[in-house]
Specification:
Layout lengths: L1 E7 L7 E4 H5 L12 E4 L6 E3 L5 E4 L5 H5 L5 E9 L4 E10 L12 E7 L7 E3 L13 E6 L5 E7 L5 E7 L10 E10 L6 E11 L7 E2 L3 E7 L7 E4 L2 E2 L9 E5 L5 H6 E3 L5 E4 L9 E10 L6 E11 L7 E7 L3 E2 L7 E8 L9 E4 L6 E5 L4 E6 L10 E10 L6 E11 L7 E2 L3 E7 L7 E4 L2 E2 L4 H4 L1 E5 L3 E2 L2 E2 L4 E3 L5 E4 L10 E10 L6 E11 L7 E4 L8 E5 L8 E4 L1 E3 L9 E8 L5 E3 L5 E4 L10 E10 L6 E10 L22 H28 L1
GO biological process, one term: homophilic cell adhesion via plasma membrane adhesion molecules
GO molecular function: calcium ion binding
Subcellular location: Cell membrane
Length: 688
């Protein structure tokens, strides 16, 4: 019971393999009844049996290389089991190889390093190709693409296997050709044959026989002077025909490059990038440096290139204003053109960026004039007046011609010193002073005040009286003035009745040199006080006698007896007089007009009237307090003027006058008499 079947791999599904009924002598009609089944250790069921006919066919195509890998013989073992009765049959399937696989190399690319100093005849192993097919379908030979430096030789090992070798037939020069790309082809013996290729890259190893070479012997670059740190200036590049360490280039500044420039710039040792390192603090517009390129060979070779860096100016410096000299303060009488200050204006930028225009505000009495190079003079251009403006803050504006321009400002403080160019000025043209007469000595009358806008001693004002006379007397005998504050004092009492007004001048003088002065007129008006009693002008008495007026005995009513005339040296209401009867021997006979002073009869005279009468007239002014004067008038009733006037001092046929004095005398006399009588009575009593 064993049958061996042969089948090519990759046979399609349904292809006939054999017939188990015929091959094992089994009745095909009983296969189903006997519950046939195929048993195999394979995970897949590659074959199928027709239960009706016993025909054996392909159930699934077989991949020999997957199933048996590199085995030369590939067998599948199956067992056929039948029941009733139980029977076991063995089947083997021999899978035959077909040329369905091409030769394949382990790598897609194979690298070989060959030193350039090797001589022809040197050999190098090449990789073997693998073919999953067996027998004549496996790799049979190798070929190499044509190359003038290499050829291929196939060697046979002791076991009969073949392998390829690469043989150097011509000396190499890495600088001329650093790599050689060869195609190695492996072919099998199938019909038709199949092949596989692999790229063989031959790398020629370098020896340090070439120095680095720069692309340019001179590199030129231009950068802005305010370029920040890290700004790329230029990238130099050198090539070395060698490779590896022999062709690895390091860049650096040559030792001949100044230390300042080496600090100012950095060069990357590998990329050759030259960058700014810090601030470009140079005054030269063109910088020169030497850059060295050196390889990393055992005996390093080097070359140099020159780097010229042009520093392009940017307007990064503002004008600098320096005050070289300054005259302050300056006198206010300085003439136009007087030099006040000397300025130095510099800009560190070159070219247009360093050119500067300078100006000051137009509304100032100053101007800037160019002097030497980069110097300006600040001079006066108009008249100065300290009293109007005592100082100036002069803003100097300097602007360069860069784009954008930079402006710098500086302020000068110029003080104006005073000169004595202003006389003292009074607040008014004249002053009127009113003073009452009978003033005390040293009385304050008035204070004049003058102002002087000048400063210091030039503005300190002193006062004095100008020499003059008043009613024949020196002014200094009447008045005094305070030198410091202009207070005017009276040196004597004024009398309105003697001097009613006068004028004088007060001079205000400053303390400048030369001194300036101004005079003011002061009008003094003396006001009246009621210091004069009315003076009786009529009637007058001589030697203390009573003035006598003769009136006809039968005078009619309202007969003018006399008119009292008085005068008062005072003024205004102090001189307004009124007349009053202080005493009349017969109050019914006379009356007095208070305004005119006329004394008239109140009624017609009678024959029974006394011949002599006496009236006392009081003349009173309207001052406060009022002053008065009295006059006694004797009135004689007679038709003709007697040769001798009677004495009006005795009572004669005048009625007794009970005035206050008489009453006092009578009372005193009565008291003395009573006292004497009482004393006598006392003595009498004592005596008894």
């Amino acid at each position: 019971g064993q049958v061996v079947y042969s089948i090519e791999e990759e046979t399609e599904h349904g292809a006939s393999v054999g017939n188990i009924a015929k091959d094992f002598g089994i009745d095909a009609a009983t296969l189903s009844a006997r519950k046939f089944r195929m048993i195999t250790s394979s995970s897949k069921q590659y074959f199928n049996i027709n239960a009706s006919t016993g025909a054996l066919s392909v159930n699934e195509p077989i991949d020999r290389e997957q199933l048996c890998e590199l085995q030369s013989a590939c067998l599948l073992n199956y067992e056929l089991v039948l029941e009733n009765p139980l029977e076991l049959y063995r089947m083997k399937f021999k899978v035959l190889d077909i040329n369905d696989n091409s030769p394949r190399f382990p790598l897609s690319e194979y690298h070989i390093n060959v030193p350039e100093f090797l001589s022809p005849g040197a050999r190098f192993m090449l990789p073997n190709a693998q073919d999953l097919d067996v027998g004549s379908n496996s790799v049979q030979n190798y070929t190499l693409s044509p190359d003038e430096h290499f050829h291929l030789e196939t060697q046979t090992r002791g076991d009969g296997s073949k392998y390829p070798e690469l043989v150097l037939k011509k000396a190499l020069d890495r600088e001329q050709q650093a790599t050689h790309r060869l195609v190695l082809t492996a072919k099998d013996g199938g019909d038709p044959p199949k092949s596989g290729d692999v790229l063989v890259v031959v790398t020629v190893l370098d020896t340090n026989d070439n120095a680095p070479e720069f692309e340019h012997s001179v590199y030129r670059a231009s950068i802005l002077e305010n370029s920040p740190s890290g700004t790329l200036v230029v990238q130099v590049h050198a090539t070395d025909l060698d490779e590896g360490p022999n062709g690895d280039i390091r860049y650096s500044f040559s030792n001949t490059t100044s230390a300042d420039l080496q600090r100012m710039f950095l060069i990357h040792p590998h990329s050759g990038e030259v960058t700014v390192n810090g601030v470009l603090a140079v005054q030269r517009p063109l910088l020169e440096m030497l850059i060295e390129a050196r390889d990393n060979g055992a005996f390093g070779m080097s070359s140099t290139a020159k780097l010229l860096v042009e520093i392009t100016d940017v307007n990064n410096h503002g004008p600098e204003i320096t005050i070289t000299s300054l005259s302050s303060p300056i006198p206010e009488d300085a003439v136009p053109g007087t030099v006040i200050a000397l300025l130095s204006i510099m800009d560190k930028d070159p070219g247009e960026n360093g050119k500067v225009t300078c100006q000051i505000p137009d509304n100032l009495p100053f101007q800037l004039k160019p002097s030497l190079e980069n110097y300006y003079s600040l001079v006066t251009s108009g008249l100065l007046d300290r009293e109007l403006i005592s100082g100036y803050n002069i803003t100097i504006t300097a602007t360069d011609l860069g784009s954008p321009p930079i402006t710098t400002q500086k302020t000068l403080c110029v003080q104006i010193s005073d000169v004595n160019d202003n006389p003292p000025v009074f607040s008014a043209d004249t002053f009127d002073v009113f003073v009452e007469e009978n003033n005390p000595l040293g009385a304050f009358l008035y204070q004049v005040s003058a102002s002087d806008p000048d400063m210091g001693e030039n503005g300190r004002v002193s006062y004095m009286l100008r020499n003059s006379t008043v009613t024949g007397s020196a002014l200094a005998s009447l008045l005094s003035v305070s030198l410091a504050n202009g207070s005017i004092y009276a040196k004597r009492a004024f009398d309105f009745e003697q001097l009613r007004s006068f004028s004088f001048q007060v001079e205000a003088k400053d303390n400048g040199s030369p001194a300036l002065s101004t005079a003011i007129t002061v009008n003094v008006y003396i006001s009246d006080q009621n210091d004069n009693a009315p003076a009786i002008l009529y009637p007058t008495s001589q030697n203390g006698s009573v003035a006598v007026e003769v009136v006809p005995r039968l005078a009619d009513e309202d007969y003018l007896v006399t008119k009292v005339v008085a005068d008062d040296a005072d003024n205004a209401q102090n001189a307004w007089l009124s007349y009053h009867l202080a005493h009349s021997s017969d109050s019914t006979l006379f009356h007095l007009s208070p305004h005119s002073g006329e004394l008239r009869t109140t009624r017609s005279m009678r024959s029974t009237d006394f011949l002599k009468h006496k009236v006392v007239v009081v003349v009173r002014d309207h001052g406060d307090p009022s002053l008065s004067s009295t006059v006694t008038v004797g009135i004689l009733l007679a038709d003709t003027l007697p040769q001798a006037l009677p004495d009006f001092d005795d009572s004669g046929d005048l009625p007794p006058l009970l005035n206050a004095t008489n009453i006092y005398l009578i009372v005193s006399l009565a008291c003395v008499s009573c006292t004497f009588a009482a004393f006598l009575l006392f003595l009498a009593i004592v005596w008894l």
